[in-house]
Amino acid sequence: MKKVKKLSAFALSLLLAGALLAGCGTKNNTTGSSDNATAEPTQAEATEPTTEAEATPAELTEIIVGATVEPHATILNSDAVKNALAEQGYSIKVVEYTDYIQPNSATEDGSLDANFFQHVPYLDDFNSKNGTHLVAVSNIHFEPLGLYPGKTKSLDALPDKAQIAVPNDTTNEARALLLLEKAGLIKLKENIGLEATVKDITENPKNLQFYEIEAAQTAKVLQDVDLSVINGNYALTEGLSAAKDALLVEDASSDAAKTYANVIVVKEGNEESDKTKALIKAVTSEETKKFIDEQWQGAVVPVF
């Protein structure tokens, strides 16, 4: 009997020691980080975000717009436009161009959602010549085309056979010639209007020599010619202002202002897309109008 009692006492001591060890292990698991913890979260813990993704706002949908640098890209990159788009769930990526052909081609092939650099007469001419299917969806602003001094600083000082640079694309050349006619330097065929070319000049008393070049180059050659007729955006790119530097500018209240308003353009079929609607709303906001007025003070005129 004594032998049995000793074995039972020994067994009992082992059981008690195991229990104590198990108790210590449980205590450590509850105070540390344990994979075995199964406690339910409190109400406060359950309502808090548990991952970074849950705490991050939904990603904005990107709108890709092609534009010439000034003033178009500057307008699109303004806080006024970006904030208005963000409120609608969109961001904007502006792809800058230095010519008038690539942004239209990229809009046609779908690389761009829209573009912003041209007026409707140029757009119509481009569609006709290239078989593209682009449409204007909103008038934004008018850039008065200006006659700028190069080697000759005034109209009165213009010499015989002076060199005049004009844009060589159909609509802008006509526009330039009409401005020169307004200046009293030439006379065009009666009622020729926007179809005018240098071949339609009927009177040229100073025997002016016309250099028909790409619109983007009219500002760059300014120091090499006597006068140059420059589109507003290219004048701005070279630090020129129609309101301050030009000898003569188009009247902002004239028919030209209506005809040559710069427009947002999309591919046919996208006129009513959500992206197009959001872009128009942002660019034609009161905040954007205020930005344009303050930024260019008459060199760029909102028409919305």
3D architecture notes:
The chain is an alpha/beta fold. Helices cover 39% and strands 21% of the residues. It contains 12 helices and 13 strands. The strands form 3 sheets. It has a 6-stranded mixed beta sheet with strand order 2-1-3-12-4-13, with helices on both faces. The protein has a 5-stranded mixed beta sheet with strand order 9-6-10-5-11. Strands 7-8 form a two-stranded antiparallel sheet.
What secondary-structure arrangement, pairings included, does this model have?
Layout: H1 2-31, H2 43-47, H3 52-55, E1 61-68, H4 69-76, H5 79-86, E2 90-97, H6 102-108, E3 114-119, H7 120-130, E4 134-142, E5 146-149, E6 163-167, H8 170-182, E7 187-188, E8 201-203, E9 209-213, E10 227-230, H9 232-237, E11 248-249, H10 255-259, E12 262-267, H11 274-283, H12 286-296, E13 301-302
Parallel strand pairs: 1-2, 1-3, 6-9, 6-10
Antiparallel strand pairs: 3-12, 4-12, 4-13, 5-10, 5-11, 7-8
Helix pairs in contact: 5-11
Average per-residue pLDDT, rounded, comes to 84
Tally of extended strands?
13
Rg is 35 Å
Reading the helices and strands in chain order gives HHHEHHEHEHEEEHEEEEHEHEHHE
> Oligomeric status of the shown chains?
single chain
Shape by Cα distribution: elongated
Derived from helix and strand composition plus strand pairing, the structural class reads alpha/beta
Largest sheet: 6 strands, mixed
The proportion of residues in beta strands is 15-25%
Instruction: Please work out how many helical segments DSSP would assign.
Output: 12
Distance between the first and last residues' Cα: 110 Å
Helix content: 25-40%
Strand order of the largest sheet: 2-1-3-12-4-13
Could you name the ranges where pLDDT drops below 50 across 5 or more consecutive residues? Answer: 1-56
